[in-house]
Structure formats: structure tokens, C-alpha cells
Amino acid sequence: MVTGTVASTAHRPASWVGVGSLGLGIFAIVMSEFLPATLLPRIADDLGVSAGAAGQSVTMTALAAAVSALCIAAVLPRADRRRVMIGLTGLAVVSDLVVALAPNLAVLLVARLVLGVALGGFWAMATAMAAQLVPADRLGRALTVVNSGVAAATVVAVPLGSWLGEVWGWRGVFLLAAGIAVLALSAQATTLPQAPSRAASGLGQLGATLRSRVVLLGLGAILLVFSGHFSGFTYIRPAVESLSGIGAEGLALMLLAFGVAGFVRGTATSSSQVGFALSREGQASLERGGSQCASHTPARYRRPRRNPQASVGCHSAQAIRALRAE
Predict the structure, then answer these.
(1) In angstroms, rounded to a whole number, what is the distance separating the alpha carbons of residues 232 and 58?
(2) Helix-then-strand count for the chain, H and E
(3) Other Cβ atoms within 10 Å of 273 Cβ, number
(4) Cα(123)–Cα(26) distance, rounded to whole angstroms?
(5) Which residue range forms the structural domain that includes residue 44?
(6) Which whole-number Å values give the CA distances from 43 to 60, 108, 120, 138, in the listed order?
(7) Which of 121, 138, 244, 289 is least surrounded by Cβ atoms within 10 Å, i.e. has the fewest?
(8) Residues 285 and 257 reside in one and the same domain
(9) Where's the Major facilitator superfamily (MFS) profile domain (predicted)?
(10) Residues 205 and 117 in one domain
(11) CA-CA distance, 182 to 175, in Å (whole number)?
């Protein structure tokens, strides 16, 4: 087991096995997040509720994830990130096991709430953890590895869950998800070094951040995008079955095509863009863009509160520097 503390210099050796364990953790948690969309009719029938009521399992996860992602760094500002990541993956294991054994909808919803805490917290902390595992000039590549867990879950886990749900039953699929989360937890416990946070963030700093119009604009845009996506994706199986008569095998193939397209268009093509944005050249470009935007803006609108677009570039560059410095 790795027990050393992560070095803070820009020339530290890369820990790619640790980065891979973070990607596996993302894979396990996102797989659990997406499973209700492929198993919704079976869950509803087994628990004796409507598909709409069973779909609230996704709502509970989303709400808890939103709160967890915002607050975890403020609530645990000095916590060892290694322990936090392992603990969050452990929550995913517990959630999947409880869902697999849930006797009614209420228990299932509570378990999905726990998954949301794991999901939001893991997303929020994985980037900072990856930044401590690799040199600064490899951070873009490391984040691509971590985020590839999302693409892998969409490409493999979602269609596989749809098919296995017909073979094993929906409870068996969640037991499989719990097993994958246990594998991810074991990999993290073995490969992740101690990573104490040096950030001084707290609830006060979180409040100050949320008063920024730039931040609120970005959060609002993200909220709209993900609300639209999951409002449709959650009920894709009952919609497809009722409108087209396509069975579980056909739906699995459709979801596989959807996942492959998302991987090719998203993860596979974003590596160079992310790497450039996190490089010093990318930061300089962001700052130049922000300065040029400000220079073409009337003086009375140059203050960030009145013209947030003019300061986006500089704020982005500063955020990237802060991430790399931790």
C-alpha cells in the first residue's frame, strides 16, 4: 500500500495507477447513477409503484450530488483526500447493496440519496486529487483518464445493465455494481498516496464564491443542461418500449451506439483541449481573452459585477493556477 505523502513540486513523478483508480471509481459510481434508466420498468413492477415514482430515484441522487459537490470541500477543508475518496467510494458500495435489497421505494430512495453524496463528492474531489498525482504538464491527460470512466460507464455499463437486467433481474445488476465499486475501493486503497489538503476553504469562502455572477451563471447553465438530459434519459426505456416495441436487446444496442458516439465526440477529442487549457500557454490565452474583452467594453461596465463576461478568462486562469498549486 502506498503510504507516502504526495509531493507538492511541479516535478513530482506521476502516479498513473492512482489516476486509473480514480477513473475506475468514476466508472463504478456513474454506472450506479445510470442504472435506473435501463431498469426502471423492472424496478417499478417489483416494488409495486409507477415508473414515475421509481424515476424519483434519479431525482434523489441528483439533489444529493448537487449539495455534496458544492459543500464537500468546504465541510472537509483539511481532510486527507485519499481518505475522502475511499470513503466516498465506500458510500457507493453501501448504496448499491441497500438498493439491491430494498423492500420498498422509501428504502431505495434513501439509498440513492447516499449515492448522490458519493457522486457529487467524488466528482468535486477527483480533479484536485489528480492534480496532486501528476506533474502540472500532465494534468490534462490525467483528467482525461479520470473522466473516461464516465464514457466507459455509458459505453459498457449502461447497455450491459439493460441486458443483464433481463437475465439476472434488476437486483442482481445492482449487486454487480456494488462489486465493481468494491474493486474500485480496493484499487484506491492500494494506489492512492496520502494527500492532505492545503486549501483554507470553508463555508465562508463557499458563500463568497456563490455571490459571484460568473459562478452563478455557470451553475445555472449546468443545471439546465443536466436537467434536460436526465429528464429524458431516465425514462428512455419505458418510452422506447411503449412507442416502438423494441425489447431489452434492441435497447442495449441503442444505448451502446449512444455511448460510443459520446466517447468519440467527447472524451476522445477533448484530451488536447483540456491539456492546453491547463497549460501555462492556455492560462495566458485565457487571460489575454479576458483582457481584450474588457478593453472593448465601456468603462462603466468593466467591473466584474456588471460585466461578468469580461472577467471570465482571468477568473478561469486563476482557478486553474489554484488547482495546480494544491
Answers:
(1) 11
(2) 15, 0
(3) 12
(4) 8
(5) 16-268
(6) 16, 10, 24, 43
(7) 244
(8) no
(9) 18-326
(10) yes
(11) 11
